[in-house]
Amino acid sequence: MPKAKGKGRRQKYSYNLNRKRLYRSARRRAAPRIACSHIRHAWDPAKSVAQNLAEMGLAEDPNKAVPISKKLLGMEVESDGREQGKKIVRKPYVVNEMEYEASLPEKKSNTLSRDLIDYVRYMIQNHGENYKEMARDEKNYYQDTPKQIKRKISVYKNFYPEEYKDFIASLKPEKMDVQ
C-alpha cells in the first residue's frame, strides 16, 4: 500500500510563534483543582479565585490575612487608628462546615497485619523474652536481628495492650504444668 502524500515531509519550526504566551493563557483558563468538597460546591466559575475565597470568608494570601506586626520585628510604627475595611462574607456556611469537620475526633485506624501478630505470638510462646533464640528460630523468615524482633514485640504491646496481657496470662498456666 502506498504512503499518504505529505506525511513523510519534515515539519517546519515556526520561529515567530510565542509559545510562552500560549501556555500561560491555557493555564489561566483551566479551573482550579479544589480538594475540599465544601469549597467545591460553593465555587462560582464565573468569578476569580480571590473573589470566590473572599465570599466564603477564606484568605487568598495568608501573609495579607494575618500580617506580622512591626512590633514583633523590632520596629515601632505609629498606626492611624483606622481599621482596614471588613469584607462581607456571603457564604459563611463554608467556613462553618470546615470548622465542624475539623473539630471531629480522628479515628485511629492503625492496625498491625495478621501475619505480624501471629509471628510475635509464636515467638513469645516458644521463646519467652529470649530475643537471641528468637533470631535463630526457623520461623524468622526475614532474618530479623534480636533488636528488630524486640521492636516488633514492643509495637504489638503498644497497639494491643489488653490482648497482650491476656496472651501472657494464658501462657503462665502452661509453664506451671511443665515444671
From TrEMBL:
It comes from the Eukaryota. InterPro entries: Ribosome_biogenesis_Nop16. Keywords: Nucleus. Its main location: nucleus. The keyword Nucleus applies. It is found in: Nucleus, Nucleolus. One of its GO terms (biological process) is ribosomal large subunit biogenesis. Belongs to the NOP16 family. This is Nucleolar protein 16. It comes from Eubucco bourcierii. The lineage of its organism: Eukaryota, Metazoa, Chordata, Craniata, Vertebrata. The gene is Nop16.
